[in-house]
Amino acid sequence: MSHTYVQNLMHVVSSTKERRKLIPLDFRPKLRAFMAGVCKSEKLLAHEIGGMDNHAHLLIQLPSTISLSDAIQEIKPVLHDGWALLLRGSVASRLIA
Q: For residue 53, what is the DSSP state?
């Protein structure tokens, strides 16, 4: 009987609208933590999360039970909405301070 091993590593890039430079340097750790939480809640293993001021990179491992398209459909709206909420909060806190 043969044994199989599956390791689906995917490099996902998510950018801001029109690649606007909206992600300040001091905000990136919060964003990485948020994205790691999203991946964990969707049963995806995040090997690495990083990015620049206008996009983010995720190196994720998909279980054999989840297709890439299903994983992206699950995390993309959450990441988009989360970015918007976190950035609004970040901008608002700077205006108040």
A: S
